[in-house]
Amino acid sequence: MKLVIINYGSGNLHSVHKAFEAVNNNSENPYEIIVTNTPSEILNADKLVLPGVGAFQDCKNAIHKIDGLFESLEQVVIGEKKAFMGICVGMQLLAEKSLEFGECEGFGWIPGEVIKIDTPADYKIPHMGWNEVTFRNHELLNNISQNSDFYFVHSFYFRTHKNENCIATTKYPNPITAAVLKENIFGTQFHPEKSHNNGKQIITNFLEWEPS
Amino acid sequence: MLKKRIIPCLDVDQGRVVKGVNFVDLIDAGDPVEQAKIYNSEGADELCFLDITASSDDRETLFEVVKKTAENCFIPLTVGGGVRTIDDISRLLHHGADKVSINTAAVENIDMVAEAAKKYGSSTIVIAVDAKKNGDKSWNIFTHGGRKSTDIDALEYCIEVANLGAGEILLTSMDRDGTKIGFDTELLSTVSSAVDIPVIASGGVGNLEHFVEGVLKGGASALLAASIFHFGEYSIKDVKTYLAERNIAVRI
After folding, report:
1. A129 contacts B221? CB cut-off 8 A
2. Is B130 an active-site residue?
3. What is the DSSP letter of B124?
4. B81-120 residue pLDDT tens
5. For residue B103, which of B137, B152, B59 has the smallest C-alpha distance?
6. Buried b vs exposed e over B215-224: b needs ≥16 C-beta within 10 Å?
7. Helix, strand, or coil here: A115?
8. What ipTM goes with this model?
9. Which residues have a Cβ under 8 Å from the Cβ of B185 and sit 6 or more positions away?
């Protein structure tokens, strides 16, 4: 079984790779983890991870700059319904559009848009640090207690159009989407690769996940 | 609720942990990777490495330390010291740093802040500011690890870097650094209330009450300390328990 981490130059690629490796090494049925941007390897993936930090548009442009990358992702995730996980901007890209630095189209895989976090004046932006997450029960959140802390760094968030696609939230002080889910497509606003044991548990759950 | 972060800082010289008093008189306190692992397991919210290696020839050791730390610690890692170019940032991120802190280079070329933030995202760019009191509610910044004075006003500079896209300000009081008499809460609150981005308090922490002051009087989003942790005076857990007892939200 192959797990592909998409390499399009994202700043957190290394951290994501190391965290997945650490969890995978302790697994009974480890995956072969491949870091790549080659469409032919992506087409052979059983599971996919899309990291992402920085600006939405820069990440999107970087993906589209690589010939056939987006098309192969679409084929595997939408066509073949393989398990997918987006992290931070890798999750925001699933939206229809983002309003960061003007309007920019996303993948449009989950209905909604990426908008600026709306906070009272005395709240710092970016929303940076450890914050509590509440969630709907799902196997991707197995063995995690409600209100567990995860590490966030972002100024924009994914407002889903359908409640059912938002499976976890945090508060700053208004509710912010912390994780999205639609069929085989999962995404976290927080960084599991930087969220210590809780983050490792999310990665474990994703490795074990078999979307129906 | 967003938690106040406790960040142990390791001053690293040629791959070894050191901590100075007022930036001189360095004392060896161990292997950075081993220390980082301990802090990680003790519940540190982030880690910070400050590379004080003078010669650029010895920088490779730092990259190795960063790489090994990132392979073992799954919490955010900020690395600073000697970051001069966009390429330096790129190399640190590539070796596993999550954020890079820039000090002198940003003062000498303020456009670098915007360039770095645009290229790697604001959340990756920490601007380190060493400030020394200059008069009533007035501080000037120092560069080159606190060795060189400037006539730049610290508050104005912090506002400017925030506007240019810095994600965070690591604010060190030169007057307090190494003294253990507490953070300069006046400096902290002056800057923190003037910028929208998080401010990390640094310099002067000597006891548990100082951490409380950094939050309540200084308005800091995060608290950074070095020697108080290294020599085992207090553990990360001691600090967090103390803050929690005073109703300050921390990750336990």
Report:
1. yes
2. yes
3. G
4. 999 999 999 899 888 899 999 999 999 999 999 999 988 8
5. B152
6. beebbbbbbb
7. strand
8. 0.91
9. B213, B214, B217, B218
CB of B86 less than 8 A from some CB of A: no
Listed residue (B32, B4, B45, B13) closest to B198, CA to CA: B4
Helix, strand or coil, per DSSP, at residue B5: strand
Q: Mean pLDDT across the stretch A69-74?
A: 98
Q: What pLDDT is attached to residue B14?
A: 86
User: Phi-psi bin for A187: left (phi > 0), alpha (psi -120 to 50), beta?
Assistant: beta
Contact residues for A162 (Cβ-Cβ < 8 A; gap 6+): A111, A112
Can you list the positions of beta strands (E) in chain B?
5-13, 16-21, 24-28, 47-51, 77-80, 99-102, 125-135, 138-143, 148-153, 168-173, 199-202, 222-225
pLDDT tens, residue by residue, B117-157: 988 888 899 999 999 999 888 999 999 988 899 999 999 99
The tokens for A197 are: 């044991």
Q: So which residues of A are the catalytic ones? A: 88, 191, 193
CB atoms within 10 A of CB A79: 11
Residue among B48, B8, B76, B5 nearest B240 (CA): B5
Q: What is the mean pLDDT of chain B?
A: 91
- Which pLDDT belongs to residue B54? 66
Provide the shortest C-alpha distance from residue A97 to chain B (in Å).
Answer: 19
- Residues in chain B closer than 8 A to A129 (CB atoms): 2-5, 45, 198, 221-222
Helical residues (DSSP H) of A85-195, grouped into ranges: 89-92
Give B-chain residues touching A89 at CB under 8 angstroms.
Answer: 121
Phi, psi for residue B107 in degrees, rounded to 5: -70, -40
Q: What is the dihedral of CA A158, A161, A164, A166, to 10 degrees?
A: 10
**B117, B166 Cβ separation under 8 angstroms:** yes
DSSP A125: S
